[in-house]
Amino acid sequence: MASEDASDVSELQTGNNGLNLNIYTAGLIMSATNGFSPDNLLGKGGFGPVFKGTLGDGQEVAIKRLSSGSSQGLLEFKNDLILIAKLQDTNLVRLLGFCVQGEEKMLVYEYMPNKSLDTFIFDDSKMKLLNWDKRFSIIEGITQGLLYLHKYSRLRIIYRDLKLSNILLDENMNPKISDFGLAKIYTKRMKLDQIRNRLSAHSIFSEKSDVYSFGVMVLKVVSDNPLDRPTMSDVISVLNGEMQLALPKQPAFSTGIRIVETNIESKEVEIYSLNGLTMSTMDGR
Known about the structure:
This protein is an alpha+beta fold. The chain folds into three domains: 18-110, Phosphorylase Kinase, domain 1 (2-Layer Sandwich); 118-222, Transferase(Phosphotransferase) domain 1 (Transferase(Phosphotransferase), domain 1), CATH 1.10.510.10; 232-272, no CATH class. The strands form four sheets. Strands 1-5-6-4-3-2 form a six-stranded mixed beta sheet, sandwiched between helices. It contains nine helices and twelve strands.
């Protein structure tokens, strides 16, 4: 290991910059994951594979292991670790600690037993477990997490990758934003032109990009069947006048106006779909 790398490891392992993170050994993590057994594999991302682990005290954790072929060096890993550790909010997956030993670089997170939101949205049987109150609660939690990243965190974060698979659910189905691999971080001291220059130098992303992605995700959460949408070939056929799309299904919640005829007069009555909501109709005296 180069001397610069050695000093980076030393800095991480002695005090870890006041971040109060646990430092795990590679041997402990090997034991917790049964030697990175395929049975413990939760998924794979840009950072590398993610494994479920059980620590000696019985605590379940999720362990991200940096892929051996990753271009991310120790210094970049260290910077990402410090930045992620500063993002502590109830609506973000919590970073518990890390391991830097030899060639191994790993991040240890709290374990989310209900996995990601897409496993519910795209599964008919699990979808039934999400009533309107639960969906509203999930949307609200994601909103609070995104607001924290954009406005209340110590750093200004543009997440850039908001999607169902990056929203994890805890044992009580509370949502938490995870996977900051694509997030762009801007300090509050940076001038607006610096931020604009950085954005234009790579690609056009801003807080509005996150809001747009959030809107797309909300539509999927409130839809009865997110998969029930036309393919691109269908869209082209419609644009060419070769076919017509089927009428959309009734939304999960809707309002409308209906004319009610009585013996005395006609009046407009606002009606609501029944979907676990209690609504009141207001009529003048």
